[in-house]
Amino acid sequence: LLAFSGVQGARIRTVVVGLGPIGLAAARFALERPSLDLVAAVDLDPARQGRDLGELLDWPPAGLLVEPDAEAALARHQPDVAILCTASQLPPMMPLLLACARAGVDVVSSCEELLLPDLRHPDLAAELDAAARAGGATILGTGVNPGFVLDFLPVAASGVCREVRSVRARRVVDAATRRLPLQRKVGAGITGEEFAARAAAGTIGHVGIRESAALVARALGWGPEAVEEDLEPVIADRRMETEHLVVEAGRVAGIRNRARALASDLVVVELDLAMYVGAPDPGDEIDLDADPPVSLRLQGGVPGDRATAAILVNSVRQVAAAPPGVTTVVDLPPPRPMR
Amino acid sequence: LLAFSGVQGARIRTVVVGLGPIGLAAARFALERPSLDLVAAVDLDPARQGRDLGELLDWPPAGLLVEPDAEAALARHQPDVAILCTASQLPPMMPLLLACARAGVDVVSSCEELLLPDLRHPDLAAELDAAARAGGATILGTGVNPGFVLDFLPVAASGVCREVRSVRARRVVDAATRRLPLQRKVGAGITGEEFAARAAAGTIGHVGIRESAALVARALGWGPEAVEEDLEPVIADRRMETEHLVVEAGRVAGIRNRARALASDLVVVELDLAMYVGAPDPGDEIDLDADPPVSLRLQGGVPGDRATAAILVNSVRQVAAAPPGVTTVVDLPPPRPMR
Fold this sequence. Notes:
The structure is a homodimer. The first copy, chain A, is built from 11 helices and 14 strands. By secondary structure, chain A is α/β, with parallel strands linked by helices. In chain A, a hairpin with a 2-residue loop joins strand 10 (252-263) and strand 11. Chain A is globular. Chains A and B meet through helix 5, helix 6, strand 13, helix 10 and strand 14 of A and helix 5, helix 6, strand 13, helix 10 and strand 14 of B.
C-alpha cells in the first residue's frame, strides 16, 4: 500500500558482465537472491565462455552458459539491470556503458572512476549522462572502496550535523588477509625502485580515493576547488609471509594512499588509505569536525571483495527505481540485502 | 550538468510548526542555511504568538512574527516544505498532515509514530498516503531516535552484506547531560510505584523504538510478523544530582526500553535503549550478524535534540526532491547539511 521499500515488485532481470573475482561473487549473490532473476553472464575470457556459470562457482549447473558478447547479451536478454565488473577506468568502459544507456538498461558497476565520472572525464561523463537520460537508464558506480567506507558513510554520518567543518576518514587493511591480486596491486614484495617506476607509470595502487574525496566534498556543498592525492610505499621492517607471497624486510609491504579535497584553501576532506601486509589494527574510522561532532568506527573494517560484490547486488533494486541519468551512491536510498 | 546532488536548485520555501526546543532549533538552523528560505514560524502557545522569531532565539530580529494558525500559514505563504514538531503520536497530527498533503506541501516531522505510521495506525497511514499522492506531497518522519541511530544506520550498514541474519543495536544516553524535559520523560527522580502507574497510563518513556525495530525488519525484507516492546525503570544505586534535579538512591534514574522484531519466530531485530541519569559509557552500537559481519560504533553517541533539529532541516531537500506519498528514512538518499 504505502511507498515503503518493504513492498517488493517483480523480479529484476539482471546480467553480470566481467567474471573476475568480484563479478563472479556478484553473479553468485544474484543467483541466491529470489528478488533477482539472473538472465545472463558475460566474460571476454575464451576459457570461461560456453561454460555453465555453476561450474565457475563450484556449484551445481545454473543453466546459464557464459556468453562472449555483452552487447549481444543485452539485445537477446533485455535485462532491467547490468552489473558491470570489467575495468577501473572510465574510458574503456564507455562503449558498453553507452550501449546500456541507449538500451535503457540500468547499470551498477565496480568501475572506480564511475563513482564520480566527471571528476577526471567531464566530457565522457556528460555524454554518458545525456545518453542515460535519453535512454531512460540509471548509471551508478559503487563498491566498498570507493562507494561505501570513505564516501557514503561519511556523508550518511553527517545527516545529524547542523554544520560540518571537515571530514577525516581512515581505512586500514591488512593485505595479508586478502587475495593475491590485491597483494600484487599494492606492490607487496617488490623493491622501492620498482614501486617508484610503477607509480610513475600509474600501474600500481588503488583507484578511487580521489573520487571519494571529491564526492564527499560535493555532497556537503563544498565544490570542491581542488583534489590532491599522494601515494607512497610502506616498507616492511621485517620479513613477512602471506598465504600467497613473501615480503622481505626492506621491500614494499603495500601502499599508503591519501587524498585531500580543498575549498576556499581549506582542507575539507582528508582520506587516508593504508593497505599493506602486516598493517596493525585494521578497521575504518570516520571523524566529522562538526556540530555536533560525529565519530564512527567500523571494527575490523569492511572486507573488500565479498562486500563489494554484495553492495553491487544490493544496489540493483535502487538503480531500478531511480530516475534516469548518471547518479552517485549519496543520491540513492541506502542499498540493503533484501531477499 | 549531472544528476549529482552537489547541484543546487532554488531556495526551498520552508515553514516550521511547533516551537518547542526541537522546532525552535530547527527554525534557527533553517534561518542559518542559505539554501532554505524560512517563510513562517507557527506555534499554538499565545505567549509566543506575535513575537519575532529572533527574539525567541535570543537573536537579532528575524523579520518573522510567530503565527497562531498552521493552516492559515500554509495558505498565506505557499511553502514547499513544512517542518512539523508538534506531537509524538500520529492521531493528533492528522489534521495538519492532511492539510499539508492536500496543499502539496512536503512534510518533515519529528513525530515519532510517523517514522512508520502504518505500524500502529494502518487506516490513518493509508488515508495520509492517499492524500499525499493525490496532492503531490512527500511525508517523512525522522529524527535521531527514531530516525537515525536505531534504524537508518543499521540499514545503511547492511549495504555491504550479502545476507543479514539479525540486527542488534544499542543506544546508551546519560540523561544527566540532557535537558529537563528529557529527564522528566524518563522519570528521573520519581518512585518505582509512580513509574509503574505512569507506564501503565502510557505517559512515561520514549516513543518510537517499536517503529524503529519494525522499519529495520521491513527494510531487510523480514515483514516482520510481530514486534514486542518492554519498558523498565532503572533504579538509582546512589544519590545523583543533575543541573536540573536530584535523584535519590532507590528512586528511578531513567528507563530501559527494548524492542524486538520477529520473523518466522526468530528475533531478527533487537533494539536496546538505555536513557538514565548516570548511565556509563554513552554511545551507540550496531552489530549485524551477517555475511560479512558489520560492527559499528558511534563514540559518545549522537546527542538528541540538536542533532534531531539538524536532521529535520537536512531532510528538507530530500523530501522536496522525492516522489509523493508517505515515505521513510531508508527510502530517501541520506540527508546532509548542504549549505
